[in-house]
Amino acid sequence: MRTMTTLEQLSKSVRHLAETVAHSFESMSLVDLNYKPAPNSWSMLQCLEHLNRYSRYYNPALANAIAQHTGEQAHLGSISYSWLGKKSVEMVRPQNTKKHKTVKHMNPNNSQLNRATVGEFLQHQQELLQLIYDARKVDLNKKAVPVEFFKLLKLRIGEALEFVVLHQERHVQQALRVKQQLAQQAAA
């Protein structure tokens, strides 16, 4: 896929995620936002907190990678994927229904969360939109973004951006399913 098309699609996805979260969760009660369908499943806020934890790492890592490579020749061809990038993107793709265990410090289970979690998620989306915009000036195939759980491994800037957005789509969909389960329980 051409770089600009990919970045435009990622921007569109991030704007859609922000609108979905604002529309779906901002007006809900704190009790409902913390509803868990089962003891070991996540609430809507826990899904968003999981994404916030990833954004706290990946937004600055992406900003650093983009800043380091701004001014170099921007690559306007296709984004190419490393084996790690392909595996990472496929693992978090929303269509992949296989459950994956998250690393302990990224697991929000048993966290005490409030409305600030939604606001933080929306703030991260604004930061991510700016990062995607800034990424137009760099070679997205530069291996420059350390993987959160093993920093010796690096993702390419383009594949890291795609990983972050797809990961967010996956867990926002999960939060929406929890909301639907809450509605079904209330209707029963």
From TrEMBL:
It comes from Pontibacter chinhatensis. This is DinB superfamily protein. The lineage of its organism: Bacteria, Pseudomonadati, Bacteroidota, Cytophagia, Cytophagales. Pfam families: DinB_2. Residues 20-175 form the DinB-like domain.
